[in-house]
Amino acid sequence: MIISKTIGRIITLVGLSFVTVSVQGQNTAKPLQKLQVSSNKHYFQTQDGKPFFWLGDTGWLTFGKLSREEINKYFQDRKAKGYNVIQVMVLHNITAKNVYGDAALVDADVSKPLTTPGSNFKNPAEYDFWDHVDYALDVAQKNGLYLAMVPVWGTNISAKDSKVTLAQVEKYAKFLADRFKNRTNVIWMNGGDTYGDKFTDIWNAIGSTLKKNNPNQLVTFHPFGRTDSSENYHNASWLDFNMFQSGHRRYDQDTLPGSFKEDNYKFVLRDFALKPTKPTLDGEPSYEGIPHGLHDTLQPKWKDQDLRRYAYWSVFAGGAGFTYGNNAVMQMYHKGEKKGAYGNKAIWSDELNAPGAAQMQFVKKLILKRNYFSRVPDESIVANQGVKYDYLAATRGTDYILVYTYNGKTMSLNMGKIKGAKVNAAWFNPRNGVEKAIGEFKNSGVLKFDPPGEKVDGNDWVLVLTSK
User: Which residue numbers delimit the Putative collagen-binding domain (predicted)?
Assistant: First the structure.
């Protein structure tokens, strides 16, 4: 069936060149608001000016491994948990097929997307790989989700035997721009776990083609671990915002000179000060359930507390959002598969309810509860700053201060950074989103605040100070 279907599609391509089909007509959901960079250039907003806090999930293999029914299940779950962006690969590899056996390309040539007229799900001769992508976009729209799509994963370009050419990617990027030009819930993530200083002609061609043909869709670059898009493309006209991959190694596993190691907030602080001003965020921290350092499956696995640390550290440093990741979900591991990557044995649908997956919504709610666009990072608030897991992340607006501790360390704070003679104080629990008032304090001098519980990694808290 698949063989005859593929032959029929090739014949169609020869006779009709590129036929772009879409199932958008089947979708009755209201289009999502277009996303924009905010007026202060540090954050995102919807086209009507409302704050948009990027809360992403890495569902990288959604298009290739999930059925229509599973896409519905996945997106509905992420909506319920407060996510609004799903990061996904369009082409994991140039021989990509979806769960129905539909190939994305003719002869593994990125300049030849395999499309067929029609989009009838019940007729396999009509329904193709790109219709499945359209279906996912429709379901995402119904659930208020934006899809941050990687056109072609970086290893397809960087491989020694790569046959992908500049001319091919230019045609492919134009195809993508044309096919999805009317979609308001598309974000483009150029690159894909790849070094930004290599194959720059390819990445610039993809980025500039997407941006030129559809300037209303945001474009960024997803780089290799412990690197940042700003290192190579900050001044590129096609790059709307920066993204870094803080990576999966522990402090002691990273021996690269100059590396920020686990200190992902340092990427944000650096990017926040760059000119021209652009938003930035951690697009790939350590995944929940993945081994420290990735490849040695005997190593401990990163836990929910580590994802919380990365989230609050980077957001309080001025990040425009945060992307969560789970080892099973990012690879959409199914029961019966031979072997999961990075030692994974968990089923993707079971891991939807991993502890960290539900906890990410609390940082989003905490930030959006206050004046969003006036928020800035301010390390000067902390009088007893520490290093590594003793680091205290601080951010403020005109009438509030938020300080995060990963391990329950006592905070000594320089007061008077916000308006008012007095402040109300509360402890916010990142594990469950509960905020408990602790009293009224003067807004001057240096004050100490001792979080609940013992000082131990994972006993994380946010001190909330608001002007009285």
Answer: 376-465
**Pairing outcome for strands 54-58 and 321-324:** parallel
Whole-number Å distance between alpha carbons of 466 and 313: 20
* Rounded distance between C-alpha atoms, residue 143 and residue 137, angstroms: 10
CA distances from 429 to 203, 359, 376, 468 (A): 41, 10, 22, 22
CATH architecture of 378-467: Sandwich (2.60)
Structure tokens at 274: 């760059």
C-alpha separations of 339 from 12, 314, 331, 334, 426 in Å: 37, 33, 11, 10, 47
Q: Using one digit for the tens of pLDDT, what is the confidence trace for 408-441?
A: 999 999 999 999 999 999 999 999 999 999 999 9
Least-confidence region, from 26-35, 113-122, 141-150:
26-35
Distance CA 288, CA 281 (A): 18
Region 194-198: mean pLDDT is 98
Closest by CA position to 390, among listed 309, 330, 308:
309
Are 360 and 83 contacting, i.e. CB atoms less than 8 angstroms apart?
Answer: yes
**Residue 456, Cβ density class (10 Å: 0-12 exposed, 13-18 middle, ≥19 buried):** exposed
Q: Check residue 88 and give its pLDDT.
A: 98
Secondary structure in 3-state letters for 228-284: ECHHHHCCCCCCCCEEEECCCCCHHHCCCCCCCCCCCHHHHHHHHCCCCCCCEEECC
Where do we find the tokens 């803080």? 246
- Give the number of other CB atoms < 10 A from CB of residue 42: 21
Give the Cα separation of 448 and 59 in Å (integer). Answer: 42
Domain regions of the chain by residue span: 2-368, 378-467
Condensed to tens digits (0 to 9), the pLDDT of residues 305-335 reads 999 999 999 999 999 999 999 999 999 999 9
Q: Return d(Cα 424, Cα 133) in angstroms, integer.
A: 49
Interatomic CA distance for residues 319 and 42, integer angstroms: 8
305 three-state secondary structure:
helix
Residue 195, both tokens: 């070094």
CATH number of 2-368: 3.20.20.80
* In 103-255, beta strands by DSSP E: 105-106, 109-113, 146-152, 186-194, 219-223, 227-228, 242-245
Q: How far apart are the first and last CA of the chain?
A: 70
Q: Of 267, 263, 366, which is closest to residue 318 (Cα–Cα)?
A: 267
The pTM of the full predicted model, rounded to 2 decimals, is 0.94
